[in-house]
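Field: COMPLEX_INPUT
Field: COMPONENT_COUNT = two
Field: RESIDUE_TOTAL = 560
Field: MODE = joint
Values follow.
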Amino acid sequence: MSLVIRKEGMLTTIQGLGRYGLQRFGINPRGAMDRTAVRLINLLLGNAEDEPAIEMHFPAGEMFFEESCVVALGGADFNATLNDEKIENWRPVFAEQLSVLKFKQKLVGNRCYLAVRGGFNLALGGDKRSKSKAAPIEGLPLKKTDRIELKVQSTSDDIFPNRQISNSLLPVYSNFPTVRLVAGGEFDLLSESDKRSLAEEDFVITNDSNRMGYRLRGPGLRVKDTAEMVSAAVSFGTIQLLPDGQLIILMADHQTSGGYPRIANTISVDLPLLAQLGAKDKVAFNLVDIEEAERLTMQFEQDIRRLRTGCRFGRYW
Amino acid sequence: MLPTRIFPLGENAATIEFGNDISEPLNDAAVNLAEYFETRRFPGFVEAVPAIASVTIFYNLHEVRDSLPENKTAFEFVKELVETAGANIADKLRVNSRIVEIPVSFREEYALDLRFIAENSGLSVDEVISIFLSKLYRVYMLGFLPGFAYMGIVDERIAVPRRASPRLVVPKGSVGIAGQQTGIYPNESPGGWQIIGRTALELITLGEASPCFFHPGDTVRFVDTATDRPIDRGGNHKRHSFF
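Field: COMPLEX_OUTPUT
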């Protein structure tokens, strides 16, 4: 009862919503880049929101289902086909036994997620005493012929084809999004004109960008006080100013601490927009205060709660 | 010690700063406040991460706000908790009194930069080792790599800048110096610290409830495996078990 990697993708890993609690030991929570996508497709399948999903980059390879199952795709649109028939993102889809899933083309975004109904059977990350040696480990790249066991088998009765996510919950992905920020600890060390540059100019995602962080190219910025800072905790979405005047945005695999000026932090509802960017894409920033940032997150979480309740209604497994 | 400032690190975390220096009182304040929150978890609390002179408290915004009045921000709530905590732990002694010993081999094959450090300091290799062993160090924080402890403060006489060109591979267990900091690579990794020796201790075991050998605030004593004792006993601290 497995999903098999038939053709290896660029960087295909299994990712959940991050494991917190060990940052004081320098251990980063890691997890999916686009957590909203993972939560939403899990809800569509009746899973727990934090059930690990497969994160794919393009080219995403091919997968083969040894048994029938119900799947959902979300995040980037890689023009997926199941047995050569196009399937849509953000919908539960029934994959019959021996189905082949392919990804033809990168249409929007850079990271596509696949969840299966019931979830995958995984070895605990880095746990050497894991019972099953064959089980893939969360966060490690999946290779050709890797088999990922499914926790449950599904029939075509297990699908709710009409189950949909309201537009208000779906991130509006773009290759030039405006991302909202809250000021960071060293924001006020920027000059007024640099603050304006941050809010008004465009920033390009450089090739030097990956799951750890994105290096941006934009107007050179400078903090007034160049005194060395002692290292302190940073977070997913923290924007630091490097000594060369350019910005770096810390992403899912960032180190737990940093010593560069913390200019701002990305608000969590806009992290998925960042997570879907790739090299040469652009981003613009817009500052909001903490009250607004909290309000936006609360609104989003209330919408998620509504979806969760809706998905539970009529659930019969 | 009272915080100098509190600011949001996004809407799911707040950083509390005590200053901007590497000093034991500031680090004590950070470790104590982190411990205070870890033992008094509020609804929505995720974790408290002590750093050199600050603590960052991570929380789930919506869980925190579920128990607050409609218009109160989670950030404001956490800020108030910190103020209350400040009054409660102001004059407390250090929470963490662990002392750990690290056996280090200074053999040439392991001490990749020992000669360079000696030349840079105008001292002999033996003098460098003896100065290094003569101090107790404090774990100011963990970061950079899982289980990597930033320790200080290295004697000025043997302080040395990072390598101009970082090594692509620093062997696991390497003990390095960078400025007045010292640290140990828990695993093989690229890195630019000057390597003075190597330990065979396992510093990280993923999958364990307490995966790391070092904890923030630990006191560390290095011992030479060749002589099996520190050159200077560094006071009459009791030796504690490692875990």
